[in-house]
Structure formats: structure tokens, C-alpha cells
Amino acid sequence: MKHLGILLLVCGLFSHESANAQTPVLLKDINPTGSSYPGNITCFGELAYFSADDGIHGIELWKTDGTESGTVLVKDIMEGSGNSNPRNFFEIDGFIYFTTGSSSSDQQLWKTDGTTMGTQMAVDFTQVEGLLSWGGFAKYGNNIYFSGSSSEAGSELWYTDGTVAGTQLLVDILPGTVGSGPRDMIEFQDHLYFTANVPEEYLEPWVTDGTPQGTHMLKDCYVGTGSSNPMYYTVAGDHLFFRAETAAQSDELWVTDGTSDGTVLVEDISPGQDGSLPSNFTEHNGELYFRAYPSFGTNYIYRSDGTSVGTIPLPQPTYDYNLAEGMCSHDGWLYFLAYGDFNKQLWRTDGTAAGTEEILYPGPTPIQPMSNAYNLGSCGGELLFRAGYIEEIGYELFILNTSVGIDEPALTNVDIFPNPTSGQLQVSGFPVNSTFSLYTTDGRSVLNTPAAPRIDVSELRSGPYVVRITNATGGMVHTQLLILQH
Questions:
Q1: Do 252 and 348 have their domain in common?
Q2: What are the CA-CA distances from residue 150 to residues 135, 175, 233, 353, 359 (Å)?
Q3: Domain ranges, residue 52
Q4: Is 90 strand, coil or helix?
Q5: Fewer CB atoms < 10 Å away: N or C end of the chain?
Q6: In sequence order, what are the residues at sequence separation of 6 or more whose Cβ sits closer than 8 angstroms to the Cβ of residue 92?
Q7: Which of 402, 432, 448 is the last residue of a domain?
């Protein structure tokens, strides 16, 4: 009865979710001698660019189209085993721009068309007169804006068009050598929004149209002496969301429509001075999703449409998660990293309690397979992420594969038993010259043999498999779920 219960449970799962169920699959073992630690995964159409270390060239620029053969090193920018550390990817006029270097004084701006020859340095910032350090890059229009520091103006708002001559200070917001320290830049509704620090107003949201005269503070959110310290600017729908604090409310969710009057507190999720500490902002289905603490020690994923009534926590599943992060909108679902019990795993939700679940790797895994995972990337129908599911290969690049369905037509006279099985199958009713195939639930073929009255599957690992029997011309004649239990 125990085996029957397992069979019914798994069959019910596959018949209900065969179109959506997914399993993590290793995309490529980039570093055969250890972990490649793929990071900064950024998607542009069907391609994703990222950084990785193959154990030979150091941390360099890679790209993938979601296939093993299409996952390749673009260029060894710092030749040898040194690291170029590519990050901050932007698309402008068909080129992917990115920065290299390890500190604010040695970063360079590069661009690529996806080929080795087409990957070239655009701007060596050390050649820009007066520029001492730089960082915090963001695309706005056809230019890249950043916080640049000079001895005359301190840290202020700069921009580049991708050339040394076209790299210059936009505006000296705080005259003098200290600087306003612009940071957290983002493009929204044909303007660039950022945080800047000036006397009396302190750290507040600012906006620019790309001209000195069009650069001004958006709103003094923290009225009086103090900083609202806005951060995590994220566009969702027709709104720009961010986190800020005031004298009355600590760190909470704010929103702006681009006007001072339209820059308001969305909801005081945790009333008082503690603040709900909203973080991990991401856009999903036109709304903002984020993590917040309604009370001390309790955290949920929230969604918001920019209104108080439309800012609510997601229903919690029976098997709960904790500390959600790395959220990513993919194929109509919200994927994220979170802890179930003490184990950090990949999760997904459709916004309901019943539709919230862990995405587990089939087979033994380390205790914390996602402990060194950060961002997820949705590219060309694939979800890409770093994981350490296989201890022997370390942290590598994984994707999700749609599971094999079992809703194909079947012949009623084909019989496969026992099911569940310990390894010896009896098969009857199959056509002459037909083929017996067995697949894991993530679509990997593990057995392909001529159909016979007796088939041995005892060498395979315990778990669910999908049987497919095809005739001599390759036509499907039978499919079913098989449970192997040693």
C-alpha cells in the first residue's frame, strides 16, 4: 500500500503539472577543475552575458544561448589567469557595454557584439583628464552615467558616450571638493533618477533630464534634519518604487510617478520606528514584488501596485519559506531563492499558497546547494542560475528544463509491470520492431533499447521515470510513469 500511495501521488503530480513541472539541469561544467562561479547574469533577448572562471583564463566574459555548445568564452580580456571581472551590462545601439576591473580606479568600459574580435575597449577612464575614480554605472538614453570623482568637484554626476572625449562631468550638484556622491541610478520615463547628498536636505531622491539645468531634487522625503536615504530604485508598471525613511516611519516602501506631489509613502507595513525594511525589489507581471518584515523576525514576499490597498503579502504555503531573495520573473512565475527549514533552495510561486513550491534537484545534493547563488536570469525561455547541486563539480551554471509529459496517446494492450519495480520489468502487447525508451523527469534519456518481454532497469537510480514505446517508424504507441524503488 505504501508503494501504491507513492505511485498515485507522483502520477497525480505529473498529470496535473506535466506542462509546468521543472527540474534543475547542469547547463555546462565550465570549470572542470573546480567551481566557475558564474555571476552577473544579464539577459539580452535570446542571449545571456555573464562572468565565469574556467580555471584557465580567470574571471572573464562569457555568453550562453541556453545550450551547452552555445555557452562559450567571449574573450580573455586580461590574458592569462588574471581576472577582468566583467559586470554592469548595458545594451546601446546593438552593442553590449560592460565594465571591467576590480576597483573604482581601474575600471574600464568595454563593448562587445558577441564575438572575440568585436569585443574592444571603449573607454579607459584613466585617460579622462581630471577623473580620479568612478563607479555606479547606469544606462540613460544612449549614454552611460556614473559617479565620478575629481580633485576640483569631488564625487559628482558624470556621463560617457563610449569615448574618452565624450566622457565628462554633467553637473556639480554640490560645489566644492566634497561632492554630492550620486548613487543608485536608474532610467524611468525619459529621465535619470538617483540619490544625492547635499547640505540641509541630505540624502534624497534626485532627477535629471541629462542637462545641468534639468537636474534637481525630486522631493525632500525626510522633512527636517535627516536623510530619507532612498535606495533600491525599481521600475514596475507605470511607477518607480524605492525604499526610504522619515522621522515618523523608518524604512518603508515609497513610489513616484516622476513628480514631487506623486512621490509618496505607499504603505507603512511595520508601523513605528522599526520599519519593514523592504528589499529584493523586482518587477513581475507589471507589479513590484519584494521582501518585507511586518514584525520583528517575520518576513514575507509582498506585491504592490503602488497603492496602499494593493500592497499585500503573498499567501504562505503549508511548507513555508524564509528570507526570499534573488527574485526573477520568468514564464509567468516568480522564481526566488529562500530557505525551507535550514536548506536554501530555488522556489517559485504563482501568487497562491498552493502554487508556491520548492524546485528540487533530483538526487543527492549538498546541504546548501544555493548558498553561493545570487541572481537569476530569464533569457530566451530559460531560467539561468548558479548552483552547487553536484558537489564534485562545485558551483556551475544551471537551467530549468520542462519535465517530460505523460499525456501522450497510449495503446491499451501494452502492459508494463510490476510498477513500482525494483529493477526487473515484464512488458507485453508492444508492436514488432518497437523501441523501449526511459527518461528522467527532466527529459534526459537514460535507456534506449529494442522492446522485449523482459527489461532490466536495476542499474538506474531510484525515482520516477517516463516510459515511451515507439514503433518501427518512430511513432508513439505507449507512454506511462514508472517508479523504480530499490
A1: yes
A2: 13, 12, 26, 53, 49
A3: 23-128+160-175+185-402
A4: strand
A5: N
A6: 139, 142, 144, 162
A7: 402
Do 31 and 97 have their domain in common?
A: yes
69 occurs within a structural domain? yes
- What pairing do the DSSP bridges indicate for beta strands 424-428 and 382-387? unpaired
Q: Please state the φ and ψ torsions of residue 9, each to the nearest 5 degrees.
A: -65, -50
How distant, in Å, are the alpha carbons of 18, 98, 441, 479 from that of 456? 26, 53, 19, 18
Residue 468 has pLDDT above 70, yes or no: yes
DSSP one-letter string for 418-449: SSSBSSEEEEESPPTT-EEEEEETTS-EEEEE
The pTM (predicted TM-score) of the whole model is 0.79
Q: Locate cell 509618496: which residue?
A: 264
Check whether residue 309 and residue 435 sit in a common domain.
Answer: no
Residue type for position 365: T
CATH code assigned at 350:
2.130.10.150
HSE-up of 152 (CA within 13 Å, CB side)?
A: 6
Nine cell digits for residue 390? 553536484
- The residue from 357, 376, 402 where one domain ends is 402
Distance CA 313, CA 309 (A): 11
SS3 144: strand
Do the Cβ atoms of 123 and 108 come closer than 8 Å?
yes
149: cell is 570623482
Number of domains in the chain: 2
Q: Residues 15, 407: contact at Cβ < 8 Å?
A: yes
Identify residue 372 by its one-letter amino acid code. N
Q: Are residues 14 and 67 in the same domain?
A: no
Statement: residue 470 has pLDDT above 60: yes
**For residue 13, pLDDT beyond 50:** no
